[in-house]
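Submission sheet (multi-component)
Chains listed below:
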Amino acid sequence: MGDTVLTARKRGLGGEAKLAYALLFPAVLLMVIFMVYPIIYVFILSLFKTDKLARIKDFAGFSIYASLLSSKDTWVVIGRSLIWTFTAVAAKTLFGVIIALVLNVKYMGRKIARLLFIIPWASSIPISVMLWRWVLHNEFGLLNHTLKITGLMQNPPVWLGQSSTAFLSCLWVDVWIGIPFMALVFLAAMQAVPQTLYEAAEIDGASKAAQFRYVTLPGIAAILLIATLLSSLWTFNDFNTIYILTNGGPAGSTNILITYVYQNSFEWLKWQKASALSVFTFIILSTVSVIYSRVYFRREEM
Amino acid sequence: MAASKKTYAITAKTFALLLTLVLLVIMLFPFMVMLVSMFKSPEEIYHIPPYWFPKTPTIKNFFLVWNTIPLAMYFKNSLIIALGTVLLNTGISIPAGYAIARLHFPGKKIIMYAFLVTQMFSPVVVVISLFKIVIKIHFIDTYLSVIIANAVFTTPFVIWMLNGYFSGIPKGIEDAARIDGCTRVGALWRVILPIAAPGLVTTIIYTFIYGWNDFIFSLTFLQSGEKWPLTIGLYQFVGRFAVQWEQLLSAAFMAILPVLILFFIVEKQLVSGLAGGAVKE
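Outcome: structure written.
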């Protein structure tokens, strides 16, 4: 009996691969048609002049890339995307670590607090951003009213009315959405750090600050890396916040690459330019993803 | 020494509690605004200067909004898109996840790597070509276009999660079933899936939430208002010249509630799944 199972398995090796391909086929097919092909197609589209319906007309070569690279607007948007990503991820990490630290203290009600902290991430993000539009409303919004009555700000700005504060508002809403994930991941990581390490540090007379620096931080370093890289991708790709809050305005001053791509394509029907800009995002994201997978697989091997 | 340590612990707890309260006010601010404002009448919500608590709370908005906008239709559309995404996604992800977790075949690493890489792309950068494909195959303005797009974008992560669940099931159980005469597919169906059910629920809820929250694909593909999900319906409402915000906020509350509850069920598994299994609880 054991023998027959063994030989069946040996003979079945080719069959096993066949079965595997059959099982993978639907998923791979769908991915190829609706993910891989569109990515290639965007590149092709960037090489042709198109009409308003995105139909391919004349071959244009790499001319659009040349004109984009020599245009100041492109660099402004790319620069803003990078500032956006870097600032937002830094803020998410900082807030995330603070909230995780606070939730790691054993006080009454911290389980409820933990649940409440998740809400911005758990609720429907497009709808949350719409809520912010009302909160930030100049006349009726409760944010400015609260800032005034608490004395935090005597003359709060019209947040979405001018470039600098509009960008800050978008940045804050994106940060606000991203904080809970960071906090939860860091909290889980902190709780996985063996308690004995803290006890040993305590015996050695280490202060709380020293314990954080020499026990907590090294303990969560690996996860900190993965979480910040993931967060960088999500932040760079965040379309909803800016589109819903300002739609890139006023006067394009809050556009990042992702919203700029959408505006160029579906609003201004400049398909070739939008495609080329998409290719820029591929290049930037691929660079990040190579770093990510390297880090990830190195960790796997460990 | 013991006494000072105790005082230290108490101060730390008080400090943590106070800090929690401050941070909670910041993090829940828009929801607090929603919770008080949805009980206000138009006169109260459009009062200058504004104030926090309604003077004569009313639940009228929760009834009025169904007539101001076709909210029931938006709910139905969101449900169709979310459930459709779950069906398609689960249908293709279970076999694929099983193959990667359990079978040996050439090219496995490449496929896994390719799945991982697709996670890096924003829907926005493929939506241009997707739009053209969707027009070409006459799927424009259909639920199916949005369902497929959402399923494609959730599939890599779901396969990744399922791979983890399936790998965690001892091989012996499956072998025993096969000795008892089950085929591989039969063993997957009757043995593996029931054991992996809790994990499966997580991926199903994740996919449902993803479909429910879809914005970009519905915005781009669904041109007639009859197919708009809640996200787009409410967005179009906000974009109107005169918005009845008190009604919108009550609609927002009703739209958020279902996903919020679902999210709390799977939150822990989701976090560990997203951190690539780096966090185990």
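Remark: The mean pLDDT of chain B is 89.
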